[in-house]
């Protein structure tokens, strides 16, 4: 992809099929790799994070093949490795999820990553791995991480205030061990993501007792289950959130492939556009959601447990009458960029004022004419910039647009058919 991409003014119209959720796919790949049976995952679409998870699955010893939108994985049995090296690409989830998994499979582990992931602190991982009995070296709590000594299944306590992703990894790792264990978690954030992990483990026949997201009781693994598992990777509400907002501010769109009963945190985007006054409807027969433009007014929203919604919420807020207030900015410091600051600085290039105070972002609605946005190699910032072109008078230039490969490689292709509809 070129270093910049010019998105002409356009208006949302027609239909888009949502890509698969990378959160669902990375989890399903991790669990399937640890199961001595075949898992068939439908709805597959590629992205860099998911491909990093597949590469790690191969390192663990799982085999897999992709036919069109179907991914089949044959997992491993009794893995006992001397050493393993994994590269998590730029995926925060794969790093925090696979770290405890590989530590239970191998006496020595080397965990590395690329790009923005090298700058993201991973608080809690080292302490958790040490609690499980490994010796850990890291680059000041960042990648690369090296472990020595196989992690042993035992009860563990973690701090959940920075991220839910380590909990996801521990739930998956410990539920594939022969002993009953317990995880205690304090101050868990991104709670729906932990629920998604529990739901997926349940689909594999693993029931974890959840005591109000503070304590999780994990049964010993039952390796005698051999029946094939069928999983559907539902459409991604996180990527679709940009289209939901794009339609709410400019026109109308029908989105297919999403589940209105999803456990995905970012389905909350519907409540946000609803609060702002947009029109939307769900068609149960077709399983589609249609979102339509309306007069939009400032809204207040708490995104503490759905932090990835900040970039699309920023577009929504900038197009509402009045000042919108979004809570939960503390959750954004260690994403692919320092996202609250990135949103503030990049929106100032479009003359949109964003105030950051304590844990809150305030955005003043203001018409957008034209301008440039740098993704800073953060996929959600690239998509945020492009969505502004749905209301701009002249093109929006996206610097470093290839960031979208991380979660939604077809994002620009999906909006391109609308470019002949000039918005204003
Ligand atoms: O488990 C997941 O799939 C994710 C959890 C969230 O991270 P945190 O738990 O670190 O907030 C989210 O921001 C990330 O994009 C995906
Ligand atoms: C923060 C994100 O993902 P991860 O932490 O898995 O890299 C994201 O997709 O916005």
Features:
4-stranded mixed sheet, 424 residues, alpha/beta, single chain, binds shikimate-3-phosphate, 23 strands, Enolpyruvate_Tfrase_sf, 12 helices, 3-phosphoshikimate 1-carboxyvinyltransferase activity, UDP-n-acetylglucosamine1-carboxyvinyl-transferase, Chain, cytoplasm, EC 2.5.1.19, binds phosphoenolpyruvate, Enolpyruvate_Tfrase_dom
CATH fourth-tier homologous superfamily of the largest domain: Enolpyruvate transferase domain
**β-strand number:** 23
CATH architectural grouping of the largest domain? Alpha-beta prism
Largest sheet: 4 strands, mixed
Order of neighbouring strands in the sheet with most strands? 2-15-17-16
Distance between the termini: 28 Å
Return Rg in Å: 21 Å
Strand percentage, roughly? 25-35%
Shape: globular
The helicity comes to 25-40%
CATH overall fold name of the largest domain = UDP-n-acetylglucosamine1-carboxyvinyl-transferase, Chain
Taking pLDDT < 50 over at least 5 consecutive residues as the criterion, the unreliable ranges are: none
């Amino acid at each position: 992809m070129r270093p910049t991409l010019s998105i002409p003014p356009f208006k949302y119209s027609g239909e888009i099929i949502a890509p698969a959720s990378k959160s669902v796919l990375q989890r399903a790949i991790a669990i399937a790799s640890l199961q001595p049976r075949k898992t068939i995952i439908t709805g597959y679409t590629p992205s860099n994070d998911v491909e990093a998870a597949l590469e790690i699955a191969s390192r663990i010893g799982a085999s897999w093949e992709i036919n069109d939108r179907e991914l089949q994985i044959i997992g491993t049995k009794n893995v006992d490795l001397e050493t393993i090296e994994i590269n998590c690409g730029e995926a925060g989830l794969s790093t925090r999820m696979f770290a405890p998994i590989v530590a239970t499979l191998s006496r020595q582990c080397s965990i590395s990553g690329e790009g923005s992931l090298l700058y993201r602190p991973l608080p809690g991982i080292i302490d958790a791995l040490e609690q499980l009995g490994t010796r850990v070296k890291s680059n000041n709590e960042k990648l690369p991480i090296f472990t020595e000594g196989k992690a042993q299944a035992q009860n563990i306590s973690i701090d959940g205030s920075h991220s839910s992703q380590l909990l996801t990894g521990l739930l998956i790792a410990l539920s594939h061990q022969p002993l009953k264990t317990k995880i205690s978690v304090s101050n868990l954030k991104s709670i729906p993501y932990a629920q998604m992990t529990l739901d997926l483990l349940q689909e594999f026949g693993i029931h974890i007792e959840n005591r109000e997201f503070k304590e999780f009781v994990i049964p010993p693994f039952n390796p005698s289950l051999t029946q094939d598992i069928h999983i559907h990777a539902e459409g991604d509400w996180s990527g679709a959130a940009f289209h939901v907002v794009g339609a709410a501010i400019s026109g109308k769109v029908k989105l297919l492939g999403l589940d209105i009963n999803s456990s995905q945190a970012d389905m909350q985007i519907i409540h946000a556009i609803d609060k702002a006054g947009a029109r939307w409807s769900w068609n149960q027969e077709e399983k589609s959601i249609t979102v339509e433009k309306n007069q939009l007014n400032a809204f207040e929203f708490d995104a503490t447990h759905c932090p990835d919604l900040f970039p699309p919420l920023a577009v929504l807020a900038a197009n509402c009458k009045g000042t919108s207030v979004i809570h939960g900015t503390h959750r954004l410091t260690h994403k692919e960029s320092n996202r609250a600051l990135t949103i503030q600085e990049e929106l100032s290039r479009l003359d949109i004022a964003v105030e950051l105070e304590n844990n809150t972002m305030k955005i003043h609605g203001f018409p957008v004419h034209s301008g440039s946005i740098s993704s800073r190699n953060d996929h959600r910032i690239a998509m945020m910039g492009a969505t502004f072109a749905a209301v701009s008078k002249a093109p929006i230039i996206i610097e470093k647009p290839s960031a979208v490969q991380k979660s939604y490689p077809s994002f620009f292709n999906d909006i391109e058919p609308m470019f002949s509809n000039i918005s204003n």
